Amino acid sequence: MGVSTSYPIQDLPLQWRSAPRRWGHPLHSLCSYFAMFPPQLAHFFIDWLTEPGESVYDPFSGRGTVPLEAVLQGRRGYGSDANPLAVVLSQAKTRVPSKRTLLKRLADLETGYSPRAVSIANEPANISMLYSNKTLRQLVWLKEQLDRTNDTDCFWIATILGMLHANHNKSGPRGFSISMPNTFAMAPGYVAKYIAEHGLVRPEVDVFAMLRTRLDRLELPTAKREGGRSWVHDATTTAPPWLVQRRPKLIVTSPPYLQVIKYGKYNWVRLWFLGETSSDVDKRLMASASLTRYLEFMESVSANLKQVVAEDGYVCFVIGDVRRGDDDLNLAQAVWDEVLQGQGWHLHGIIADEIPQDRKVSRIWKNNSGRATKVDRLLLLSPTPQKLPDVVPPSWTQKLSFAKAHS
């Protein structure tokens, strides 16, 4: 039975925070990514504000949480991003090959692989320090053979990206590299020092074997699932005409936060595999400590999204508070006051979502943790005034699968 719309909007975070910590399809953890909101949040809003068959869009798709949740719930999931890494991860989760197809492709790649035919002499020293010669040759071969425009290859690329670097546990390596200090790539000089201080030895692992093992844990569909798509796009520019025609019922997204770390810089290993450089990627992405510039950025983004979202649809921006001096800036409120209100959006509420201490990105900076956000705020909007539907608490005991998404 649904709860009436008198349900306090400020209590909405209790809905997704009540879910189990590890709730969600295994594909969500295919590859780590900065500033990723939990799949429980995306699941709740998709379930609450859309119906099966409708479209859901994230213009800053990151690791593809929103598009994947949309697909799993029988919606069309769309995701775009200016970061090629994000596009690969989102594409892998919206156009999911069958396990059988993936295994056949991997077998063909392994059959065609010859260590003597692959040179690693010209690979950067920063890459060579992470992998044994055997492992690096396999990675270089896969890097040369896989085509990200092919759905099957794109899925394998995304899987490899999630395993390029990882720490180790008692059962052995969880990735292909030496045991890394974090799930993201610290600066090359820092990593080199870390390797020397800990006397780390590059592990001799078989990439093909580890990929097969990883595939067994991903609960893939028995037939290819084409539930949406992903593409490279700058959200400050006009959306593609086909998306405007689709009129997504819901847009859920987390725009870049103000004065945070750069996505390219801390993904330099993954970008190497994609044939990209961190400096080139960071030039494409919004990263500024200027509030004025940020508000101008959001003005362009929100104006474009108003042309995309359905007239009876909704937009949810997830925007984190930012520490400026001794104070926390309520950035979501600033975006509403200075940008969205003047564009004619209808505001349903600005909802505070306290980030649990053990899940804050701030833990990676130790004594400099003040740089990270402590509170996310959700701006819930619609292009025209309308009543919100009843809040129906989701059942977190239900396990989503691609089989159910088809039904």
Automatic annotation (TrEMBL):
Which superkingdom? Bacteria
Which Pfam families is this protein grouped with?
N6_N4_Mtase
Query: Which intervals hold domain DNA methylase N-4/N-6?
Result: 32-84
Q: Which UniProt keywords apply?
A: Methyltransferase, Transferase
Q: Where is the signal peptide?
A: none
Stated name of the protein: DNA methylase N-4/N-6 domain-containing protein
